[in-house]
Amino acid sequence: MALSPTAAQQRVIAAADPVTGRLRSTEAQLATLVKRGLAFRHPRPPHDHFLTPAGHRIRKDSDEDEAPPAAEPPSPAAGGVFISRVGGEDPAPEGGPARLREVRSAWQGLLELRRMTHPDGATDRPCRWECTHLVQAAALALEAAGCRPAGPDDGDGYRVRATPQPEAVAVYESAGTALRDCAAVLVRAGWQAGEHTEPRTRTRYLLASPRRV
């Protein structure tokens, strides 16, 4: 059972890589986190330490406690923290080669997290982190495949939004062909995706959820 971390351990958890959960600290501190069920030591060299699902929850709770409330999706933050573009961010985030490198690195890190956390080492289906960060995970899969997120006043591009269903997200696109392209991307990334129509507006959208097996 995971125990509540001390203030020092909380700082180590908060500094973990936001995508992979990789930890950096002293061996003694890391060993204590392992004993508390908040981290695990990877069995393969270089034997790095990573957050367990319990550790990720503590990190998420800490971030939410410190973050001010916001009605709009967050824009990319300064300081090297990667944030998935869910579409509709205001102001419009910068793109270019630097962003492409960030997205590529984040996606590769997520594939590595899948490999390390699935008992069979599979990378073709979402991991626990993705299942607890549905909107961010789906948006990363789309952007990593070259799909374009919508701007704040731009009808073109994808928008990923939470739904009342705890294990599914909605993906909106302006064109039917683009929506089908998004569905194909998510399926390749290990998600299940099907097209639906909103009864009142007749807007087409994808309902996507992580594939379990």
Describe this structure in words.
By secondary structure, the protein is an alpha+beta fold. The chain has helices at residues 7-14, 27-35, 53-66, 97-117, 128-132, 134-144, 176-188, and strands spanning 39-41, 49-51, 159-162, 169-172, 191-197, 204-210. It folds into 2 domains: 1-69; 82-213, no CATH class. It is built from 7 helices and 6 strands, in the order ααββααααββαββ. It has a 4-stranded antiparallel β-sheet, with helices on one face. Strands 1-2 form a two-stranded antiparallel ribbon. Helix 4 (97-117) crosses helix 6. The radius of gyration is 18 Å and the shape is elongated. 32% of the residues are buried. Mean pLDDT is 83; it is low at 66-80.
Class from helix and strand fractions: alpha+beta
Widest sheet: strand ordering: 3-4-6-5
Low-confidence stretches: 66-80
Mean pLDDT: 83
Tell me what portion of residues adopts beta-strand conformation: 5-15%
Please count the helical segments.
7
Q: How far from one another are the termini?
A: 26 Å
Order of helices and strands: HHEEHHHHEEHEE
Biased composition (Low complexity): 89-98
Region (Disordered): 1-21, 41-98
